Amino acid sequence: MASMLMNSVRNCSLKSPRAVQFGKSFTFPACGTKSKKTLSKTGVKNIVLVDGVRTPFLQSGTTYADLMPHDLARTALQGLLNRTGIPKDAVDYIIYGTVIQEVKTSNVAREAALGAGFSDRIPAHTVTMACISSNQAMTTAVGMIAAGQCDAVVAGGVEFMSDVPIRHSRKMRKTMLSLNKAKTLGARLALLGSIRPAHLAPELPAVAEFSTEETMGHSADRLAAAFGVSRREQDEYALRSHSLAKRAQDEGLLSDVVGFKVPGKDIVSKDNGIRPSSMEQMAKLKPAFVKPHGTVTAANSSYLTDGASAVLIMSEEKALALGYKPKAYLRDFVYVSQDPKDQLLLGPSYATPKVLERSGLKLADIDVFEFHEAFAGQILSNLKAMDSDWFAKTYMGRTSKVGSPPLDKFNLWGGSLSLGHPFGATGCRLVTTVAHRLKKEGGQYGLVAACAAGGQGHAMVIEAYPQ
Amino acid sequence: GVATSCGCSVQITRSRRNTLFSGIHTCCTFAWTHVNYEIKGDVAVIRISDPNSKVNTLSLQMQKEMTEVMDEVMGNSAIKSVVLISSKPGCFIAGADINMIQACKSTEEVTRLSQEGQKIFEKIEKSPKPIVAAINGSCLGGGLEFAIACQYRVATKSKKTALGTPEVMLGLLPGAGGTQRLPKMIGLPNAFDMMLTGRNIRADKAKKMGLVHQLVDTLGPGLKSPEERTIEYLEEVAIDCARGIVNKKLALTKEMNMMQKIQDHVMSYSFVQNRIYSTVEKKVLKQTKGLYPAPMKIIECVKAGMEQGPDAGYLAESQNFGKLAMTPESKALVGLYHGQVACKKNRFGVPEKEVKTLAILGAGLIGAGIAQVTVEKSINTILKDITEEALNQGQHQVYKGLNDKTKKKSITSFERDSILSNLTGQLDYSGFEKADMVIEAVFEDLAIKHKVLKEVEAVIPPNCVFASNTAALAIKDIAAASKRPEKVVGMHYFSPVDKMQLLEIITTDKTSKDTTASAVALGLKQGKVVIVVGDGPGFYTTRCLAPMLAEAVRVLQEGVDPKKLDSLTTGFGFPVGAATLADELGIDVAAHMAENLGKAFGSRFGGGNLELLKTMVAKGFKGRKSGKGFYIYQSEPKPKDINPELKEIVESYKMMPNPAVSSDSDVQYRLISRFVNEAVLCLQEGILTNPVEGDIGAVFGLGFPPFLGGPFRFVDNFGADKLVEKMKTFEEVFGNQFTPCQLLLDHAKDPSRKFHN
């Protein structure tokens, strides 16, 4: 009974913003309700996305500056609770993805869940896989449901770049640890006396790939050069991302955002990194990584962002039993990995044909594309790689190219370049956006793809839930 | 961004009618085969590629075409700037054509070559249109001189990009303006360092030194192959630079920080310069013992330019270049260069099966050294020993060798770990069933070698090669215990394996050609210079060394102390003195070797009393490893105190020197002639296939003076007749140890007979 009651509340709360949205007229291409086949397979459980939310994504060092990561994750979880109205004990498991861990809350999933008021009987764990950490959280959830271990799982991601663990140097740490064991005053003084200025140099979290010692921006610049992507193309793409994000924001399409009353500060309800500029302004910037002839700049790269996201994933039966109308089916997904030196950011190129093949789809079947935009140069390089028979044959062992996604279906509500990219949280944003866009644009299949540090990548096919 | 093409793009075809000089060449058509150019907007991109070679060299043809192309480019008013690039991946210009210099008959002829080079580069330097050298791969010798004559240099960060002036290693000097431009560009100390050591400078270091202006990253997979696209990218950046120079957006003067400014100012004082010259001269003399003329000539040329101006400098450079090219030292070093190239090829063809898994028995110094050079080439390597302690030490040696490279930043810690993942340390024979080759480096004892051979043959697959690392035991004796002697071969590595370039491969008359091919292929993969010799006691290298060490012991018995003995040997050009060498080798090893070979060859290997070495071993004086040998070794890096207890031992074996054959020079020739005679005998007996391998083996394995080019080159240059004459004098005093072998006598009789043409 209680759940029935909650469901009616949920449906009411959802109606009003939707009504407003549908009232406006947009020029987005409507795919119409094509009667494509469903991707449901016999013997495989249908798994659905019930809903997804996120905190506003803010540039690091702004309004969220004094919080901790679990505060953001907690806010996303509370937002999901409010949005879906799910009883706090109806969830079987909670999984979060994150990249830079706050050492005090290394299992940030658990800390956030407790603070968000979920039952303390719900286990929670944290996963990490660079920029596809929350994708990993979601697919872990899918796996648990498919295996029959759970019926309802909350997956999410969080990243908090306003504060990162900066450590003492290894020498200092060693001295301090020895100090703990020193028994006599003399031994302690001797240890303290051994501290030299070199001990005091702090250790910042590495921005470089551990295996290659190359920063991601540097690798992106080399990638753009390898694919012959010009500075102008990159600036144009970045401008497109910001313009589309601005329009989506202005038109209220970013309905996954939940407002956040930041303690001691104002209510935050919008992403704050969306800044459509002009080609002239962007052309003035100097290259950020490869100097002086590089092409990747601050304006055509994603920026350091704070934010969290969360999605509710269930088996279809469970969702229906609880009275939900799911937003989408989560279908096939793949993870890929390549050379972290020269193909660091090419994950989408490898993952896209692979996941389409698994689903028995062609690129042309996809109505909605949401790709993670780490760098404009990275996106454009991937588009070129996917459009190259030579690349497909030489590096992917395929007979022909998969093709380049048409831009009129691609990241139409902005992307990581403009909305921001809290590493661990971006994956859930991509999946939720696909679900929302499928509904809005009337498409049937959506594709999420993303690259990640370590030369890894991910793609997932999402199918619209029948209206 | 990088503009790939701007406006019109005109490809100048290789075959074209020359209209500029039609008065001279009436209606002649000529084809450019080595150099061509393309006009991209207002920039001419000159591309070089020698169609007949993997590398570009400044051959006569290349120079001729370059001059023609340059003339045309300079004459075209639509062209505002020039980019010079090689279309070969991995090579800009590897240097001048050595054969071109070798073909010259006189000093004057070589001097003229140098002057022509100087002239071409002067024109480049004074070009009113800026020329940007775009460097990817080796930029050496004449290639570097070309690059530094250009107004601007852009280089890729490729591991293959190396800038350097290796002429000194061939007994030459940078003869096309290098001695004049380099000091001005990078300062005296750096210029001397480059020119006197000949070492390669990597791209990042070159940028720091001011040798190049800008660096370009290497690219990975894109829409073309990484190599091809990297060259294109380099060209794009270079074109932007060329335009930038014309538009004055790019400054040609380097930005200097305060330290560099102060340094430059200090260097401008002549007394500071003089101080540098004298320091460098002293250092050179100390290291070369005055045996190598090139380094002093390099200093002379730099000095002439700095003190008397460019005209005098360039003149000194070309004249000294001519003189050096005619010296026997240069000819010997060039010979070694060619020999080294020859010994980097597998004359036994491609083996049927590539070695993918190598098992090594014995984790001692040599075994672990072999493991290191093998894992570095991504070959699965099993290192087996019988005790955990020995294994631990061996594995640590491999780790340390690689970690030192990490410290020097030649590999990353990740690369180190990934290389190390190819190594498996173990105490049993598991996994040997997958081995393609087993190299045993166990104790030098025939019984032990037989034991492991049998154990190994019980577990390895039928096509697996069994190689024995031994310095003296005959391979056929080891193979006697084998069920498949055609698969048994000798692989004699030199310690320390990761530093010593030589690998001596020994084949018996039963060893199959494929087994040999397989051993050579592995050696080459490990980066070794490989010689293949016949079986016999001591093979080639040990056999040459033993008589010289026997003579050294006699010299000690005659009352010459180890320090004096060392200075006589190093004074002759050996990098390490005879006494130090014995200490490094191990006195016990030397005694063992002398005893074995003495038994095999009889009195010819006599001279010094073997008992002297045996007494030393009995007292625990086993050389460096035991802390005492001829010298005392303490923990300090500079040991070099004579072992005081040695005197007493020597005293008991004292011999009276014969004053007729005991001058310093006599002692030197006594040592060297026994070495050389034994080497020639090895050729006579067919242990050696050819003199080239004999020279390479002696120089790279035993430190035979490089400027002499090896024992065979030495006989050619010194004169077999003169050597025989000296040996006969010694023979009268000492007997058959100095009897010249027949082949040497043949050469002495007929002065036209030479080992090398």
From TrEMBL, chain A:
Any one GO molecular-function label of the UniProt entry: acetyl-CoA C-acyltransferase activity
Matching Gene3D superfamilies: 3.40.47.10
Main location: endoplasmic reticulum
GO (cellular component) term, any one: mitochondrial outer membrane
Pathway membership: Lipid metabolism; fatty acid beta-oxidation
EC number: 2.3.1.155, 2.3.1.16
Keyword Transit peptide among UniProt keywords: yes
Primary enzyme class: transferase
Listed InterPro entries: Thiolase, Thiolase-like, Thiolase_acyl_enz_int_AS, Thiolase_AS, Thiolase_C, Thiolase_CS, Thiolase_N
SUPFAM superfamilies: Thiolase-like (SSF53901)
Domain Thiolase C-terminal residues, every copy: 324-463
Subcellular localization: Endoplasmic reticulum; Mitochondrion inner membrane; Mitochondrion outer membrane
Domain Thiolase N-terminal: 47-317
GO biological process: fatty acid beta-oxidation
Keywords, ordered alphabetically: Acetylation, Acyltransferase, Endoplasmic reticulum, Fatty acid metabolism, Lipid metabolism, Membrane, Mitochondrion, Mitochondrion inner membrane, Mitochondrion outer membrane, Transferase, Transit peptide
Catalytic activity line of the entry: hexanoyl-CoA + acetyl-CoA = 3-oxooctanoyl-CoA + CoA; decanoyl-CoA + acetyl-CoA = 3-oxododecanoyl-CoA + CoA; octanoyl-CoA + acetyl-CoA = 3-oxodecanoyl-CoA + CoA; butanoyl-CoA + acetyl-CoA = 3-oxohexanoyl-CoA + CoA
NCBIfam families: AcCoA-C-Actrans
Function field: Mitochondrial trifunctional enzyme catalyzes the last three of the four reactions of the mitochondrial beta-oxidation pathway. The mitochondrial beta-oxidation pathway is the major energy-producing process in tissues and is performed through four consecutive reactions breaking down fatty acids into acetyl-CoA. Among the enzymes involved in this pathway, the trifunctional enzyme exhibits specificity for long-chain fatty acids.
Known partners and oligomeric status: Heterotetramer of 2 alpha/HADHA and 2 beta/HADHB subunits; forms the mitochondrial trifunctional enzyme. Also purified as higher order heterooligomers including a 4 alpha/HADHA and 4 beta/HADHB heterooligomer which physiological significance remains unclear. The mitochondrial trifunctional enzyme interacts with MTLN. Interacts with RSAD2/viperin.
Family as reported in the entry's similarity comment: Belongs to the thiolase-like superfamily. Thiolase family.
The protein's name: Trifunctional enzyme subunit beta, mitochondrial
Taxonomic path: Eukaryota, Metazoa, Chordata, Craniata, Vertebrata
UniProtKB/TrEMBL annotation, chain B:
Residues in 3-hydroxyacyl-CoA dehydrogenase C-terminal domain copies: 538-633
Keyword Electron transport: no
Gene Ontology CC annotations of this record: mitochondrial fatty acid beta-oxidation multienzyme complex; mitochondrial inner membrane
Protein's GO biological process: fatty acid beta-oxidation
Gene3D superfamilies: 1.10.1040.50, 2-enoyl-CoA Hydratase, Chain A, domain 1 (3.90.226.10), NAD(P)-binding Rossmann-like Domain (3.40.50.720)
Compartment(s) where it occurs, according to its Swiss-Prot or TrEMBL record: Mitochondrion inner membrane
Entry keyword Cell inner membrane: no
Enzyme Commission number, as recorded: 1.1.1.211, 4.2.1.17
UniProt GO MF annotations: enoyl-CoA hydratase activity; long-chain (3S)-3-hydroxyacyl-CoA dehydrogenase (NAD+) activity; NAD+ binding; transferase activity
Record-annotated active site: 504
Chain ranges of the 3-hydroxyacyl-CoA dehydrogenase NAD binding domain: 358-535
InterPro entries the UniProt entry points to: 3-OHacyl-CoA_DH_CS, 3-OHacyl-CoA_DH_NAD-bd, 3HC_DH_C, 6-PGluconate_DH-like_C_sf, ClpP/crotonase-like_dom_sf, Enoyl-CoA_hyd/isom_CS, Enoyl-CoA_hydra/iso, Fa_ox_alpha_mit
Feature type site, description Important for long-chain enoyl-CoA hydratase activity: 145, 167
UniProt xrefs under PROSITE patterns: 3HCDH (PS00067), ENOYL_COA_HYDRATASE (PS00166)
Site positions for Important for hydroxyacyl-coenzyme A dehydrogenase activity: 492
Subunit-level organization: Heterotetramer of 2 alpha/HADHA and 2 beta/HADHB subunits; forms the mitochondrial trifunctional enzyme. Also purified as higher order heterooligomers including a 4 alpha/HADHA and 4 beta/HADHB heterooligomer which physiological significance remains unclear. The mitochondrial trifunctional enzyme interacts with MTLN.
Family classification: In the central section; belongs to the 3-hydroxyacyl-CoA dehydrogenase family.
UniProt cross-references to NCBIfam families, sorted A to Z: fa_ox_alpha_mit
The protein's name: Trifunctional enzyme subunit alpha, mitochondrial
Protein's gene: LOC113586544
